[in-house]
Amino acid sequence: MRRLLVPALVLVAGWAAILWVPPFSDDSVNDLYVYRTFAEPVLGGELPYREQFFEYPPLAAPAIVLPGLLGTGEEAFRWAFAGWTFLLAFAVMVLCGALAARTGGDRRRALLAAAAMPLLCGAMLRTHFDLAPVALMLLALWLVVAERPRLGFAVLGLAVMTKGFPLVAAPPVLAWLAARGGRRVALESGAALAGTVAVVAAFAIAASADGFRDSVSYQVDRPVQVESTPAAFVYALDGIGLGRAEGLGSHRSDGLEHAAADPVATLLAAVMLGVVALLSLQAAARPDDRRTMVLAALGAVAAFACLGRVLSPQYLVWIVPLGVLAFAWRMRALALVVALATVLTQIEFPALYHELVDRDPLPVALVCLRDAALLAAVALVALELQPRRKEQLLDARGAPVPVGFD
């Protein structure tokens, strides 16, 4: 517990900053109203998907509703949600330290870097529930490196059913498991993931099959969002006179309409699948290296975030653990570009968000630079995982990391 004292104090100081110290505390654009107006009727007995439209997977509901137990008034919910997300941030910090220690990294560096999350991310850390699936995903990865892969994949299923993005971490981890422990371990782990997802989905379908289907189609049908990488290409096409990009308010977000928007988004989605496949192959090529698996999994999440048709500011929360662990592993360039992407997001959002929607040059440039930094992070992950001279991985105490599963 002693090693947690200083990082915990840093996290508390950062949380105070995002509550009270501008510009870190700027929450002028947030999702708390949406969460609060969902939590109130659900706590009153209405069911998500049936009486209440719900755009997220089923386990997002308790992550959103839980703070409402302390009150659904504006101020009560704001403070309760801040307290809830602080606990989640503390869990993410501890899990980053544990993963660093298990993968030959410096636990202290990981703890301190994770404790700095509030200063890098700003108020969006306490006004969105994304820390919940991030914590579950990190717990799943820790269970895998702790040689409990089946339980790890069951927890990963919980993460997927909280917010879908952790699913892209599964292929690199399964490929690594197959190469390391044999196909049986990988198949059983994959079955644990599928079974968990199926059980949770069954409860949602039982509540309302139509409502659950509407939730899925709501996400699939989203237009290219103004902060996404496809939007950067659309801005460029508009800038050189190849079609006009028109603003589109849709899906509680701001999107873009352009003749090339959907083709560009489809192309980048294909690139994303290719990157996940490449990272999976790279993970399988080094089955004796736990760090490889964790790096490939988090790199896949970064690829999903930066190559998808939506890149909301809170998606940077998904990528912060990649930067934290890169810092703990002394991958300086990777840690730097993740930090740069996160800081650029905080500069743009929420202070310049409305100017971005109006396509003022400064916020557009900031977002495009941020997206380029995220692409650079994915490229650095792939470069780091290139085949190299075989070496024995050591843990934080200098002892060889064992291979194989019992």
What does this protein look like?
This protein is mainly α and 406 residues long. The protein has one domain. The chain has 18 helices and three strands. A three-stranded antiparallel β-sheet has the order 1-3-2. A hairpin with a 2-residue loop joins strand 2 and strand 3. Helix 9 runs antiparallel to helix 14 (290-307), helix 10 (183-207) packs across helix 11 (209-220) and helix 12 packs across helix 13 (261-284). It is globular. The model has no long low-confidence stretch (mean pLDDT 93).
Tell me the domain tally.
1
Helical amount: 55-70%
Strand order of the largest sheet: 1-3-2
User: Treating each run of at least 4 consecutive H or I residues as one helix, how many helices?
Assistant: 18
What structural class is derived from the secondary structure elements? mainly alpha
* Beginning-to-end CA distance, first to last residue: 30 Å
Low-confidence stretches: none
Order of helices and strands: HHHHHHHHHHHEHEEHHHHHH
**How large, in whole angstroms, is the Cα Rg?**
21 Å
Number of strands: 3
